[in-house]
Each structure stands twice: as C-alpha cells, then as structure tokens.
Amino acid sequence: MKRENEKQETLSVTLPANIIAALDRYVSTQDQGISREDALISALRDWAMQNGLLQSGMNGDEGLRPDQLNATNDD
C-alpha cells in the first residue's frame, strides 16, 4: 500500500491478541486479501481522517482508494 512520494517510517508495536484477531477479520473481508500491514495502515488513515487529524490533501491523494471503499464510508 505504499504510495508514491510518501515518506515511509518503520514502527514496531506489540498489539493485544484481540486487536490482531479484529485485524485478521478485516483482512478476510477484503476482496483482494490485503496484508495485515496494509489493513492497519488503512484503519489508522481512516481514523485520523475521521478525527480531523489528517486531510486527504495531506497525503497527496484526493478521496479514498478503491480498496478503502465500503458501506461505512458511503456518505
């Protein structure tokens, strides 16, 4: 899910088992079967945008990517 011209940094974190299970359930619902890393990035990006911490213009893209579209962002 790396985007062109987007600076990348590595972050290592230990997550509780219930969060990993939820992440795996999310991955299993995706048509193309995305990786845990991509699912986590997508969830964090959505959370940051919904809470006004990140605007779509801040990452170089406008709107959501096709793999991020679902019924919850159908506004």
Strand percentage lies at under 5%
End-to-end separation in angstroms reads 24 Å
Question: Oligomeric state of the chains?
Answer: single chain
What structural class should be given to the helix and strand makeup? mainly alpha
Instruction: Give the overall silhouette.
Output: globular
Helix content: 25-40%
Number of strands: 0
Number of helices: 2
The radius of gyration is 13 Å
| Major β-sheet annotation | none
Mean pLDDT: 82
Spans of at least 5 consecutive residues with low confidence: none
Pattern of helices and strands:
HH
Descriptive notes:
The chain has 75 residues and is mainly α. The chain has a domain at 16-55. It has helices at residues 17-29, 36-50. The model has no long low-confidence stretch (mean pLDDT 82).
Jot down its keywords.
mainly alpha, 75 residues
Report a brief summary of the structure.
With 75 residues, the chain is mainly alpha-helical. The chain has two helices and no strands.
Topology summary:
Layout: H1 17-29, H2 36-50
